[in-house]
Amino acid sequence: MAVAVRGGYDKSKWGLPRRWSYATITPSTRPATVSVLGREYPTDEMTNVSPTILSKLPLRLHTQPAHPLSTLRALIESHFPSYAHISSLSPLVTPYQNFDLLSFPADHPGRSVTDSYYVNKDLMLRTHTSAHEVDVFEKGESKWLLTADVYRRDEIDGSHYPVFHQTEGARIVSADPNGMKEIEDDSAMLQAHLQRSNIIIEDVPHLSSTNPCQPAHDPKHTELIAKNLKLSLNSLILALFGDHVGATPQNPLRVRWIEATFPWTTPSFEVEVFFRGKWLEILGCGVIYQPTLDNANVRNKLGWAFGLGLERIAMILYSIPDIRLFWSQDARFLTQFKQAEITTFRPYSKYPACFKDVSFWLPENMDIHENDFCDLVRDVTGDIVEDVKMTDSFTHPKTSRKSICYRINYRSMDRSLTNDETNTLHAQVTSGLRDRFGVEIR
Ligand code: DAH
């Protein structure tokens, strides 16, 4: 199972029972087709893409000149100059590409309609850039980076947004002495560079009983690949963070490797960076599981892959405090940045927060997933809501009916909201709750 990277499957969601989704309870209001990037697709009982989400597809922030996410992509690409750089793939993939080709188990929670966006049962919005791994290998690329927008249903707060960006990277070599020499030479170069820099790395063994070698692999080869993976990423992290955090011998950059589990890599790792007193998880990676390469018709090769979440890194590098800002069309945001330059974001004033509660009784035998509630809020309010918290939930002892209360914080990033405006929005959320889920407002 995949472990969380912002951009990973949230550990807290594991094992949650599947619950009702918007899609499953409103078949009568479902349109026959949905238009995605200019094409019509038939809908079915899995359809749950909303207009708000679909409006993000054409934006492709990672390719917009001067946008922080685009500069970060270019910076990562410049660190791997000999790799193929891919950034134009459509977000529409099949569940087969997104999950099955990567050996996700049939009951993985990431597949459920409460976690992922489906156009219909055969087509979804990719939840990670790994969805393209097999295709890229199949095209014959052996060293490549792929940057793209990815989509996951999520709660609302300052660091979660249902669309974000990832860079996937991978390298494969021949499983023979030539391939191993290529990797060892590269590792020697990287090692020399890292030794001269102000970075402290907490490592874990390349292999262990809990993070084992694959049956198809020679453990010596796996060790060399894992070592090269770690050196390549430590060097990237140093290039991204080293200058910025002003690492010195007294105050070195600290990086920590942790064992992890992903269905398409073994051994697998996560990497955390120490920043402003906290360890931040920034990527997942590992030695590619051989069946993944078999699925791409790649024979007699082995290698590594990683997936990096861009927003979290950009928020650190540019001091951007709220993930919604990446989507801002406000000139006070956009004109602050230049392509290929990392500069500190100058916040314009923070506008007042306005908290409003909504309490309701659920219909009998029904639960509403928090992601369904948050999608409703996003559909009604766009990016005006800063966060949503469940503040109360109880079951009436006599009637067994369940009551829930959410607190919504209405705060625009760009302007002050009037009372009338928040009241109207809140009334729309309330009536949307009634119409979409059949709840009884208290
Ligand atoms: N796709 C993973 C995620 O979104 C990140 C990842 C982990 C990518 C391991 C990889 C990998 O290529 O090998 O959580």
TrEMBL record:
Keywords from the named record: Aminoacyl-tRNA synthetase, ATP-binding, Ligase, Mitochondrion, Nucleotide-binding, Protein biosynthesis, Transit peptide
Enzyme class: ligase
InterPro entries linked to this entry: aa-tRNA-synth_II, aa-tRNA-synth_II/BPL/LPL, Fdx_antiC-bd, Fdx_antiC-bd_sf, Phe-tRNA-synth_IIc_mito, Phenylalanyl-tRNA_Synthase
PROSITE patterns, per the entry: AA_TRNA_LIGASE_II, FDX_ACB
ATP-binding in keyword set: yes
Domain Aminoacyl-transfer RNA synthetases class-II family profile stretches: 70-347
GO biological process: phenylalanyl-tRNA aminoacylation
Family, per entry: Belongs to the class-II aminoacyl-tRNA synthetase family.
Purpose: Is responsible for the charging of tRNA(Phe) with phenylalanine in mitochondrial translation.
The protein, known as: Phenylalanine--tRNA ligase, mitochondrial
Organism: Boletus edulis BED1
